[in-house]
């Protein structure tokens, strides 16, 4: 068998990186073996690929093979009594929820889109709005079946082959290919959350609200007005939510009104396209309105929301996103330890504004340290800033973000490789820690001596360290 000879131009989700690769679709474990063998025979490197929803070069492999695992989308077993599900790696969170929610179960950790695959969530060790409470996705993984590049199949769990388990979760597809995942889901009494929003006139107020809410909430996230300056720098709202114990009927997991969704998507795309020429003033106004609208006493009252609309972006928002930002979006997400976070977040916001790079939307989340080898989480907060990308501003924006990355790393901060695009190999080494990186590279040499598994991200951040 040979690797498909046709090269395909792949772009990441935020359109900030693209590459020409050979795409190889696999349907089962035998297909993964065959893909690895074919790549080996042709001297090509390979990287697994889920839904391609990373914002970076993590699932791209210029000139090499991209192994598309989305056809492996079967639910292998489901224990509705104990909330334990075993899936192939290409199963999406949406599919998992569609089955599990009927019986009152929900993933412990969800990113804000349900389109991602479970294999992608494990390989990135994704985080949600409950990261400080429940840790990353890997914390709810009971076991993994993995195929190592040596063609050896292993089962890993926190108790069995624990070192490799904690290295494999979050290993960005570079140690082996996950062929099945067994996950513990959490029970939900009602499928609703009780949501409360509180406003703060500046960044210190945001941190004060996080501190007050963290013991009584299951989820927390802050939105900031990235345009606000001076004494109003970092003004915004903190939204906290608690799983509702009341016995309202469970909402259906996802809308089944596909035609309505498509219509909504088309309207949002049209509006987004029309508003593109006035993007910057329009978003400035929207940030202001959102801040003042959210300060109304009514907006600050608790209310119930279904878990699906609370957790995930509506599908129409995806259509709008790509219509609004045809050249893509640059994201900066810095994780900073608790004592330094308020000061560093102010520094980067001020620096960004001073250099005419205004983030269009900004998010803060609370995190905690975890035991995974390449963990990007720490006891502190993350600040996510999102910028429109244009050919005219791309180079300047890159310089601004690189300065901000250096500031964060000096403060002991880290970056999340699903969203960071500009980190360099020395910066990654400094941020993740010498010891963690060396242990990872040693495991890579042990389990992938031919260096078969590579991505563009690997060559940017890891390979220079091997030299
Ligand atoms: C709108 C949006 C919102 C998001 N919100 C969040 C959020 O709130 N929190 C968060 O943490 N992330 C968030 N993300 C990022 C996203 O959750 C991660 O990038 C996730 O990994 C994407 O999954 P995927 O299936 O698309 O994987 P891909 O992007 O295709 O791949 C991601 C990595 O997983 C590896 N991989 C995939 N499958 C396998 C496998 N079977 N075995 C080994 N390695 C594999 C790939 O090689 C790659 O390194 C968001 C992304 C989008 C687009």
What does this structure look like?
It is a single chain. This protein is α+β, with helices and mostly antiparallel strands and 467 residues long. The chain folds into three domains: 7-70 and 441-466, Uridine Diphospho-n-acetylenolpyruvylglucosamine Reductase, domain 2, CATH 3.30.43; 75-187, Uridine Diphospho-n-acetylenolpyruvylglucosamine Reductase, domain 3, CATH 3.30.465.10; 192-426, Vanillyl-alcohol Oxidase, Chain A, domain 3, CATH 3.40.462. The protein is 35% helix and 23% strand. The protein is built from 16 helices and 19 strands. It has helices spanning 29-41, 93-100, 118-124, 131-134, 162-168, 203-213, 258-275, 279-294, 307-311, 315-324, 341-354, 394-410, 425-432, 434-447, 456-461, 463-466; strands at 7-11, 18-25, 46-49, 65-68, 75-79, 84-87, 105-106, 141-147, 153-156, 177-184, 186-187, 192-200, 219-224, 236-243, 303-306, 329-337, 361-367, 380-388, 414-415. An eight-stranded antiparallel beta sheet has the order 15-12-14-13-17-18-16-19, sandwiched between helices. A hairpin with a 4-residue loop joins β5 and β6. α11 (341-354) runs antiparallel to α12 (394-410). The chain starts with 6 loop residues before the first strand and ends with a helix. The model has no long low-confidence stretch (mean pLDDT 92). The structure holds flavin-adenine dinucleotide (FAD).
């Amino acid at each position: 068998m040979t690797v498909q000879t046709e090269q395909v131009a792949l772009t990441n989700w935020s359109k900030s990186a693209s590459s020409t690769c050979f795409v190889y679709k696999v349907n089962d474990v035998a297909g993964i073996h065959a893909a690895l063998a074919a790549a080996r025979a042709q001297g090509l490197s390979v990287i697994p690929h889920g839904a391609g929803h990373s914002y970076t070069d993590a699932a791209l492999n210029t000139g090499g093979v991209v192994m598309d695992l989305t056809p492996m989308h079967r639910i292998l077993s489901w224990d509705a009594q104990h909330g334990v599900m075993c899936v192939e790696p290409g199963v999406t969170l949406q599919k998992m929820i569609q089955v599990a929610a009927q019986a009152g179960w929900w993933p412990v950790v969800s990113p804000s889109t349900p389109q991602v695959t479970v294999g992608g969530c494990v390989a990135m060790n994704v985080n949600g709005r409950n990261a400080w409470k429940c840790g990353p996705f890997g914390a709810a993984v009971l076991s993994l079946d993995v195929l190592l590049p040596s063609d050896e199949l292993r089962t890993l769990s926190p108790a069995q082959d624990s070192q490799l388990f904690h290295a494999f979760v979050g290993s960005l597809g570079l140690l082996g290919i996950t062929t099945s995942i067994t996950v513990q889901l959490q029970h939900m009494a009602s499928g609703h959350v009780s949501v409360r929003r509180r406003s703060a006139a500046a960044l210190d107020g945001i941190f004060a609200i996080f501190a007050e809410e963290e013991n009584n909430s299951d989820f927390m996230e802050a939105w900031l007005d990235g345009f606000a300056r001076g004494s109003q720098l970092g003004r915004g709202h903190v939204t906290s939510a608690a799983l509702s114990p009341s016995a309202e009927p469970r909402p259906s997991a996802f809308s089944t009104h596909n035609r309505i969704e498509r219509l909504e998507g088309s309207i949002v795309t049209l509006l987004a396209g029309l508003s593109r020429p006035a993007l910057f003033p329009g978003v400035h106004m929207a940030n202001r309105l959102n801040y003042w609208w959210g300060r109304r006493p009514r907006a600050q009252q608790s209310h119930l929301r279904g878990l699906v609309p609370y957790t995930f972006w509506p599908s129409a928002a995806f259509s709008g996103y790509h219509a609004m930002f045809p050249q893509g979006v640059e994201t900066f997400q810095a994780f900073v330890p608790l004592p330094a976070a308020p000061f560093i977040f102010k520094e980067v916001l001020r620096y960004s504004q001073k250099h005419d790079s205004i983030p269009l939307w900004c998010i803060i989340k609370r995190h905690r340290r975890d035991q995974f080898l390449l963990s990007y989480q720490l006891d502190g907060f993350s600040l996510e800033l999102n910028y429109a990308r244009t050919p005219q501003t791309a180079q300047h924006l890159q310089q601004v973000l690189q300065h901000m990355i250096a500031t964060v790393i000096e403060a002991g901060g880290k970056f999340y490789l699903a969203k960071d695009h500009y980190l360099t190999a020395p910066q990654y080494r400094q941020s993740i820690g010498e010891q963690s990186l060396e242990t990872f590279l040693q495991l890579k040499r042990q389990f992938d001596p031919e260096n078969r598994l590579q991505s563009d991200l690997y060559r940017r951040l890891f390979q220079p360290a091997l030299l």
